[in-house]
TrEMBL record:
This is 4-hydroxy-tetrahydrodipicolinate reductase. Gene3D superfamilies: Dihydrodipicolinate Reductase, domain 2, NAD(P)-binding Rossmann-like Domain. The lineage of its organism: Bacteria, Bacillati, Actinomycetota, Actinomycetes, Kitasatosporales. It is found in: Cytoplasm. It catalyses: (S)-2,3,4,5-tetrahydrodipicolinate + NADP(+) + H2O = (2S,4S)-4-hydroxy-2,3,4,5-tetrahydrodipicolinate + NADPH + H(+); (S)-2,3,4,5-tetrahydrodipicolinate + NAD(+) + H2O = (2S,4S)-4-hydroxy-2,3,4,5-tetrahydrodipicolinate + NADH + H(+). Pfam families: DapB_C, DapB_N. Homotetramer. GO terms for biological process: diaminopimelate biosynthetic process; lysine biosynthetic process via diaminopimelate. It comes from Streptomyces reniochalinae. Residues 5-108 form the Dihydrodipicolinate reductase N-terminal domain. Keywords: Amino-acid biosynthesis, Cytoplasm, Diaminopimelate biosynthesis, Lysine biosynthesis, NAD, NADP, Oxidoreductase. Residues 111-247 form the Dihydrodipicolinate reductase C-terminal domain.
Length: 250
């Protein structure tokens, strides 16, 4: 069987270098290109790339995706910075490139995907909820894409259940003290040397609390998800948002 021809964008970065190693070690894949910030995107097509993995930066990912979709290259995207406007733009580009697949995964960690799912399930049972994400201090964006997605899923579940805004008597505070408001859910971002990627979802109700915590202790934790995405995306044209869609969770 012929091997999947895979390229990594952001290959010199923290995640990209780990992805290069994972693809090189996968029996069913061949690493055909490894691009850094100064490299021409034409290297992707020159190398006959079938699937490009984007692990760059929020300010670079849209241009990379545009190039991939214009050339029928499937994409697996871990880069953060996804707004509704950006997703709409990707869908519009995909409409002109039928047959091409894009997976955007806020988090490739299986435990992180399960954390989001469990939080979504728990949301309707608790009056209060807060999300705390904790990362290494080299991270460019705050809050994390995973925390934003988690809060959105919780917000949707609360709304579907008809829950009111959560109780909070704060009338006076320093700016930022109550975190960022994502769909009614406070999200707090910690940056600490020594950490990789961690998240806690705190739920509270009368006389009980529930904490769901996930820890990525090394970036190798993301690689089974990256490889799964590479294998699945060619057979899934259009936009898939979230690795859970490739995990048969239901
Ligand atoms: N979805 C997931 O599971 C995960 C996602 N991430 C996200 O992945 C992204 C990268 O994270 P890190 O590796 O920690 O960042 P990093 O800063 O270590 O690496 C980014 C790399 O991309 C390169 N780059 C910038 N523009 C480029 C371009 N146009 N073409 C090719 N390369 C380019 C930079 O030179 C750098 O080497 C971030 O958005 C981060 O939040 C990180 C970990 C897990
Ligand atoms: O930058 C990181 O490190 C991570 N970024 C992703 C995010 O913003 O959610 C995924 C994971 O948290 C690691």
């Amino acid at each position: 069987m012929s091997k999947l021809r895979v390229a990594v964008l952001g290959a010199g970065g923290r995640m990209g270098s780990e992805a290069v190693r994972a693809v090189e070690n996968a029996d069913d894949m061949e690493l055909v290109a490894a691009l850094g910030s100064g490299d021409a995107r034409s290297a992707l097509t020159d190398a006959g790339t079938q699937v490009a993995v984007d692990l760059t930066r929020p300010d670079a990912v849209m241009g990379n995706l545009e190039y991939c979709l214009a050339n029928g290259v499937h994409a697996v995207v871990g880069t953060t910075g996804w707004t509704d406007e950006r997703l709409t733009a990707v869908r519009a580009q995909l409409a002109d490139s039928p047959g091409t697949g894009v997976l955007i995964a806020p988090n490739f960690g299986i435990g992180a995907v399960l954390t989001m799912r469990f939080a979504q399930q728990a949301a309707r049972f608790f009056e209060s909820v807060e999300v705390v994400e904790l990362h290494h201090p080299g991270k460019a964006d705050a809050p994390s894409g995973t925390a934003v997605r988690t809060a959105q899923l919780i917000g949707q579940a609360r709304e579907s259940a008809g829950l009111p805004a959560q109780p909070d008597a704060t009338t006076q505070s320093l700016e930022g003290a109550r975190g960022a408001d994502v769909d009614g859910v406070p999200v707090h971002a910690v940056r600490l040397r020594g950490l990789v990627a961690h998240q806690e979802v705190l739920f509270g109700d009368e006389a009980e609390t529930l904490t769901i915590r996930h820890d990525s202790l090394h970036r190798s934790s993301f690689m089974p998800g990256v490889l799964l995405g590479i294998r699945k995306v060619p057979a899934n044209p259009g936009l898939t948002f979230g690795l859970e869609h490739f995990l048969d969770l239901d």
